[in-house]
Amino acid sequence: MKKMSKPEKDVLDREIKRIVEDSGVGSEKKGDLRGVFVHKFKFKTIQYLLAYRVDVGDLELIMIGPHENYYRDMKQYLKSR
Description:
By secondary structure, the chain is an alpha+beta fold. The chain has one domain (6-80). Helices cover 33% and strands 35% of the residues. The protein is built from 2 helices and 4 strands, in the order αββββα. It has helices at residues 6-21, 70-80; strands at residues 27-28, 37-43, 46-55, 58-66. A hairpin with a 2-residue loop joins strand 2 and strand 3. It is globular and about 35 Å long. The two termini are 20 Å apart. The mean pLDDT is 91.
C-alpha cells in the first residue's frame, strides 16, 4: 500500500468497505488456500487481487497486489506465518 497513489488508495478503501458490507463478494479458494477469499477489482488497466479471511465476524486482510505471481507469493506468506 505504501507505493499506491492517492486515487489507488481511495479505490482500495471503497473495495474494502464493499467486502465489509458483504464478505461473500470474493471467491473462496480451494486446496492450500482453503478459507481464503479473493476479491478482484480494476484500477485503470491494472487488475488487483485482495485476499481476506472472515473469522467469527472479524475481517482479516491478507494481501493485495496485481495478478502476476500473486497466488505463489500468498502461499509463501501464509506458510511463513
